Structures
1.
Amino acid sequence: MKTLSLLLLATSLCFSAIAADKKVIEIGTKPESVCRGFGGKLYVTMINGDEPGDGEIKVLDGDKHKVFAKGLNNPKGMAFVGGFLVVSDETMVRKIDKKGKVTVLAEAKDFPKEVTFLNDVAASRDGQSVYVTDMSHPKWMFDPNGERKLWPIDSDKAVAPMTGCVYKVALDGKVSVAVPPGDKRMPGPNGVTVTGKKSEETLLMGDFFTGNIVAYADKKLRVVAKGMRGADAVEAFGSKIYVSSWPLGKVWAYDRKTKKTTVLADDFTTAADFYLDRKGKQLVIPDMLAGKIVFLPLE
């Protein structure tokens, strides 16, 4: 019994040490997405309030942060490609140069179909374009009587418009459909990342409503994992797929070899679009409604 008690104590101390290792930076109102950009520094989209034009991009320098770019509306996903930060902003995509100048890359009229809620952004391996998800407006997913409460998957009150898809946007402004809408396994894609070989890119998406992690290649979509509802960021590294959940405040690791899902953290208010720092072996996670950036060690 004494041995068991000591073992439990050691396990508890171990988890406490892991929790204590999490670096946290208070950054402001509604941080949404993080990526590494100019000078190897981390950049963060800041939604801020509800007024048009009050959105910003901040840059982290150690534990300090400052405004890098202004004048966005509701900036969400962001990627660094071709010497620009590329950001989704409601129904348009913007690019930002090294001096913080913001210009429109593609606006609503440039898309082949009506766009309603552009969200995550991932750099293509061609170095000249990005993938952008349109998850459709998420109001249909939520029970208005609960706080960030998704309707049950089989609820007849959750009627998907089936417009969720992924676009490819080139740095010259050309827009094309990368993953078409209409698949019930992916009614509301949020997170997107690129895996596979450079010449044979596979897109990996997290569906916000169903919790499906899906892969798309050769015009075929398949479900890789299930059960991660509210999927926001999705990134792959080795055999692992890392997923954050905005409404549940969780971060998971799914092992493609063992087919097992592990909860890495469940103490976020709203875990948003993280940056996978492969070299630092950590996730840099915006806790949107808490106004924090959390550095979560992976080992």
Note: The two ends are 30 Å apart (CA to CA).
2.
Amino acid sequence: MKKLLRTLAAAGTIVLAFAGSAAADHTVKVGVIAPFSGPFAIWGKQFKNAVEVYVAQNGKKAGTHTVEFIYKDSGGPNPSGTKSLAQELIVRDKVDYLGGFVFTPNALSVAPLIQKAKVPTVIFNAATSIIVKKSDYFVRPSFSLWQVTVPMAEWAWKQGIKTAVIAVTDYGPGNDAEVAFRTTFEKLGGKVLDAIRMPLSTTDFGPFMQRIKDKNPNAVFVFLPAGPPSFAFVKSYNENGMKAQGIQFLGTGEMDETTLDALGDAALGLTTAYHYSGAHDSDKNRAFLKTLEEISPGAAANLASVGAYDGAHVLYQMIKAVGSDRTKAVAAVKGMAWESPRGPVSLDPDTRHIIQNVYIRRVAKDENGKLINQEFDIIRKAVPDLGLPN
């Protein structure tokens, strides 16, 4: 390990010396770390598809610089393995930038490394608020759980929901979601009857459902990672008669577009607050979906898609501005605003986190009978990360 760090330090010095020239037509390498195998492999596929959509629409050059993406498989929540991949990308592959990162522990594991090596790193997903504070080189154009959960709690109170049980996956984003919902809901006058933290490895949610049913709240607020955990929880919610008992489902990204069809009509009417729906009504999103269908027929667009697409946009703007002179890259995009498939967005110049609209959505069927997350209101416009000081 000591030898590798010495090599990394030397490589960093060499790359920085070369970066000063920021030569025209220099190929700039971007390493993208995500799961491409295992139960969360859909994330890597969504990331790669979205980056390819961006490249197809904007070309392989950012300004005068050719951009090359190099993908590495983290295999899921794997902090030590992710750190090793980042070291490999920086030292062996000599990347100028990093991107990707689905899980908070993985993103946090690389923070000391990128701070020392001065490698700008664009977070495509990992949603715990504290991440961007761990390195000056983190930029996050995805979202945070505070950002979407506070508006959810506010909306719930306005709908007459007075009592709730909180059920979250027990790791960084879930803990953020629990605190954000409880703090906001109780401040408004609501009562949290129970707060349940479920292990990330949970596959049987039956015991948790019984605990929720015994409390008989007006609603259950849920956070789970998109993919197999969310699918299993929602399936259990329906099988245990929660909706029939009058316990309303409130969530964020659990109605993920990649699992909606599998959930079927049981998902109809379930309500979430989020920053994007694949059914978002805008020309920008329609263009995104059109190119995505051309690149990967039948692929669904979801939070991973829009996070990676906008992540590619931020990377391109950095590279266009400074090439491989990465010491100036983050400063080049602070305060930047653009039109995303999710709507108007910008990067907070102080926190380096995205500012965006948060929508209230309900699962419905479109004109073709396809299940979608139908946005029916903007809960808040231009929302910063409400878990970070501003």
Note: Residues 123 and 140 are 5 Å apart (CA to CA).
3.
Amino acid sequence: MSPYRPPLTITPEILALVEQIGETLGRWSVTAEPDLPLHLRRDNRIRTIHASLAIENNSLSLEQVSAILDGKRVLGLPREIQEVRNAFAAFDHLPGWSPTSLDDLLAAHAILMGGLMDDAGRFRTGGVGIYRGETLIHMAPPASRVATLMQDLLAWLARGELHPLVASCVFHYEFEFIHPFADGNGRLGRFWQTRILSAWRPILAFLPVETVVHDRQDDYYQSLAEADQCAESTPFVAFMLQALLTAMAQAVVADLPTDQVTDQASDQASDQVRQLLAVFRGDESLKTSQLLERLGLQHRPTFRKNYLGPALAGGWISMTQPEAPSSPTQKYRLTALGLKVSGVV
């Protein structure tokens, strides 16, 4: 019997994203490695924890999360404060855990969910369904299969058959599909993807990709649903690679001295992206049709592939309705970074 391999189609989009991430990671490494400044490590870690827990409906603000790290008293729900403390403790242990160790994965869950559930660190013993409102969107495999499925998944990861960027995304999806724990699967899935990536490049332990996922939370869940529907992780892998690219592009600029931001960011933008940024006038919001007209373009697929997609991924522009990317009333506007690069500020 052949070993388990998660179903995946390597598309041109996935290959292109891996290449772009590699190039962007190289630029970030120049500015941040070998020693990412301690204040940036701290800030990125706080942003990561705040965003990941916010996805799970934790209502504490970024300032409150920072205060908890500093040991200050915070007014908030005891459970939410405990979630933050647990997340900080888990990240402290991150370097010592092996990405392919089942025992370490269970230990990570025990810390993340300690004091929040009775069976922290142990696989679920009952069935579980994922609901949105009253609609069942995913029925996880039976509890009796969880241990075997997780062992197979970790054994596949250990064989190293895919590039770590892709493998980490595949693992993330498969983990959420198995849903091995009664609670805490979302935060642990994102946390363990970070562990996989940081084993490949240590600096990625401090990449706050969760902030991008939080900003695009509906797209995150939609990509999970699409992967379920086509019975392979491909849509989710593409989404997560795009999120990683966006987070990395933002990190490159954030880690530069202020007087270098505009020059460095401008260098990273393609000619097409610079052309797109140039058609905005200040902080106005424009529809796709308006952007096409100002650029003198007619072919929407080319516009999305070469202009709009890279500009969104690089953090140069943002949607006015990020919760509804396909809305007919969707508009786009320059971000703070886009305003700097375009020379508006």
Note: DSSP finds 16 helices and four strands in the chain.
4.
Amino acid sequence: MGLIKEPEGVDFVIQSLPLTDKERIEISEFIRTRKLQNKLRIAKEISKKKRKASKIPNA
């Protein structure tokens, strides 16, 4: 695979616009919600595995 060169007059560096306070708060809330959902999903899976393991009779 070869090296891709930038065409003349084209710059591939992207400069993001600064976030507003409202956008920053919305993103923080979204991240907080997703982390909580992930924790709940993992806890549910662990609980499910424990219940399944407890149903297996001893050999």
Note: The first helix runs from residue 21 to 55.
